[in-house]
Amino acid sequence: MTMEAIATRARVGKPTLYRWWPSKGAVFLDVVLDRIVEPAVQLPDTGDIARDLRTWIRGFADLFTDPHARQLLVGLLGAAQTDAELATMLREKIQRPLQASNRERITAAQSAGQLPAMDPVLLEELLISPPWYRLLVSGEPVTPAYADALVDAVLGAHGGSSR
C-alpha cells in the first residue's frame, strides 16, 4: 500500500497525509496503536497466569490470522527495518509499554508462586517470539492449539504450572 493509495481511500490529498504522518510506516503505527494494541496484545490478569498466558498468545493467533491485521503488522515491521525514526517510535509507543505491563503481570505471578523465578523479560520473549517467527519468517499458522502448546512447553520447561 502506498501513501497515494491511502490518500485516495481517505479521500484526501497526499500533502494532507504528510502533514500528519511523515511516512507510510507512521500511518501503520497509528492504526496498530488504535486498532490492535489495546484490544489484542495486552496480557490479561484473571489471577490464573497459565490461563492468562494462553489467552494472550491466542490473541496473537487471532490477530495473525486476520488478513488485514497481518498485512498491517508485516508492513509496519518491514518499514521499521529501514526507517530508524519509525523503529524508535515502535519501541517507545508499543514494545516498551507492553513489556513493562507484561513484566508487572509476570512478576506478580512469580510472587504468587504461579511462575518460576526467572527474568520476566526472558519469559515474555520465550513466549512471544515463536508466534512472531511464524508470522514473519516461516509463514506457519499460529493456531489456538499452537498457542496452548507453546505456553505448556515454556511453562513446563521452566518449572511452572501449565494447567
TrEMBL record:
Q: Which GO terms describe its molecular function?
A: DNA-binding transcription factor activity; transcription cis-regulatory region binding
Q: Can you give the residue ranges of the HTH tetR-type domain?
A: 1-39
Ribosomal protein is among the record's keywords: no
DNA-binding residue intervals: 2-21
Specify the domain of life of the species encoding this protein: Bacteria
What the entry lists under PROSITE patterns is as follows: HTH_TETR_2
Q: Note whether DNA-binding occurs among the keywords.
A: yes
Keyword entries, A-Z: DNA-binding, Plasmid, Transcription, Transcription regulation
Classification via Pfam families? TetR_C_11 (PF16859), TetR_N (PF00440)
List the InterPro entries: Homeodomain-like_sf (IPR009057), HTH-type_TetR-like_transc_reg (IPR050109), HTH_TetR (IPR001647), Tet_transcr_reg_TetR-rel_C_sf (IPR036271), TetR_C (IPR011075)
Output this protein's name.
Putative transcriptional regulator
What species is this protein from?
A: Streptantibioticus cattleyicolor (strain ATCC 35852 / DSM 46488 / JCM 4925 / NBRC 14057 / NRRL 8057)
